[in-house]
Fold this sequence. Notes:
By secondary structure, this protein is mainly alpha-helical. It has six helices and four strands, in the order αββααβαααβ.
Amino acid sequence: MSASGGIDSPEKLWESLLRGDDLVTEIPPDRWEADDYYDPEPGVPGRTVSRWGAFLDDVAGFDAEFFGISEREAISIDPQHRLLLETSWEAIEHAGLDPASLAGSSTAVFTGLTHEDYLVVTHGASGLASPYVVTGLNNSVASGRIAYALGLHGPALTFDTACSSV
């Protein structure tokens, strides 16, 4: 699990919620230079009036080897998909199950996913020119990637219902 403010477990999230923590911070400098996009005047094209957000720590810290994914493929996978795969595995463990015990079962995977920001951000990046881009950026593949990683044989469907998918 990964959430803003260094929260890396359901227990830490629950404690943070009970305390009423504010997990919104200024834009971290390792994400982007806030001044390049900030303007206090609302409505300026290509600008934002906010310097704040809820940012995940180490969003690029995906353990590709654990899931049998090459580094070359991993950098082509949308971070949303990487986080979804890791979180799915962790959710099964937190339920007291061994994820490997589900292999071969008729277990379904249903996910809600929207936004393709990584596609926009990486458009034209020569380092991402690989055969993995098609599956790495396509939201419909996210549920199948989970099913494949866990060896599940049930249906795998990704739904995009706009804001209700987030």
